[in-house]
Amino acid sequence: MQRFTLIVVAVAWAAVTSADARLGQASPSYALGYTEIYCDCSGGCPAFCTSPNARRVVTPLLATAGPSDSAAAWSPDGEKVAYVNGGDIVVMEAAGTNAVTVTLSASSPAWSPDGTRIAFASNRTGAPELYLMNPDGSNVVLVTMQMGFAWSRPTWSPDSSRLAFTCEVDPGNRDICVIGVNGRDRLRLTADPAIDDGAAWSPDGATIAFTTARFGADGQLATMDADGSNVVRLGGGITGWDAAWSPDGLYLAFTSWGSESYGIYTISAGGDDISWVGDFMAEPAWMPGELLIARMSFWCDRLTCHFDATASTGPATAYSWSFGDGATASGISVSHTYAAGGRYDVAMTLSGEHGATATARDSVSLNRPPVASFTVACEGLSCIFDWSGTYDPDGEQPGVNWNFGDGGDSWYPIEGRPSAGRHVYAAPGTYTATIRAADAYYEVATSSQTITVTRGAMHVGDIDGTTVATQQSTWSAMATITMHDEGHRPVANVVVSASWNGGAPVSCTTGAAGWCALTKSRIPRKASVAFAVLGASNSSFVYAPTGNHDADGGSNGTTITISKQ
Ligand SMILES: [Ca+2]
Ligand SMILES: [Ca+2]
Ligand SMILES: [Ca+2]
Description:
The chain is mainly beta. The chain has 1 helix and 43 strands.
């Protein structure tokens, strides 16, 4: 019963097809600019489609399940709806219950503003005429008698004294006429040769909206004064029919074409602010009375949010909240604590009289803390820290700083957002390194690892011998020694000890390029000289002579024999 079914679609199509026939060929490609206020029918539509922002409430015939329900008309107190079912008029409770057929062979019910009578159309005398009856179907009175009444939905003056309807005084020229409820004083309001149809009397009685083909092949929405003067197009030329005034007179709902189907729209009485209510709906009828308007506000402290619906207006009887994490609550003002940060879609639904609902929606974005993690790889005392796995799930790069565990409470901020860096420990040992990440909301995450670093191994990577000076009977030799770490990178500040021809040890200290040189003078002219590395020392590296080598092959990495060149 409360589903958006094919039955409804078929009914609405029939309504549009008849309007189409009356008004000429409407263009299915006509597109309206609008603000979307789609009726949310997921999970089954309520009795009355309510736009999510609930500015406007219309009935798209979703309350009934009959095979040919159409032409809904509200009782002015909002408690009942009259509609057409299978060519008869039915009156039911607004909630959809207790449907009673009140008169046969009738269509286009219109409830009088004073609630006492229902106007309708019937051809029960052999020609279409306008009738009145009590809401229970009793006391049927004929209003028109061969006055050119044409099939259409009549509309009441606000004082319930007159009815406007579509008439055909000149054969083939449909116009808008007015008549007293006593059947007297028929007045033809329009006489343009184009088709005029679908009158709707404004709640203040001053204006009649209708659809006219006088501006083009498509029927367009227009308004005129209640005496038929001052016809103006609404919104500069909008294809539309089934015009219906909102109870406050500020808006009109109407049926028109969307991009793929027909649907219901609303437009301000001034002709702007078009909103789309939904597709596959026709014949809008506003729920009487004060509209439900749902509004929510909220503020959050960390993961706890406070929601408030007191800005809502209208006769709401209940407030229900859905917080977007599966939790719900009821009340005009509620609080909710989320389990984790993130984005949550919150909905607040007002319930009002006669099954009316209005929903406001918003989303809450709660900060999530950063995630801190790093990897570390050490070679000797030198460690590469890689924190590319540190991030903030909200997208912003968190600020990162370090404590490498060897400097007390010192923290080292990372500048320029690299994702890795080197730290060299001064001495072997076990250290606890910690990375700390903080986001823009000062949410902090840390990650620690215990690292044991040892002194690395070093070796001689090259020995070269050269002749640096030649005297008459002697010459001088120089040995250049380069120290490498395990990655064959030069090592500075290594004290290299060596000896010439097995003599007393001599030493030099490698510079930034990892090498130092020793010279031997007064070598006899025809003699060679032997040079041997005896040892090497450094605070960060252990001498591992088994790794000694010489890339150019001039030595074995430990000893070299130098001859005069
Ligand atoms: Ca006309
Ligand atoms: Ca964050
Ligand atoms: Ca060499």
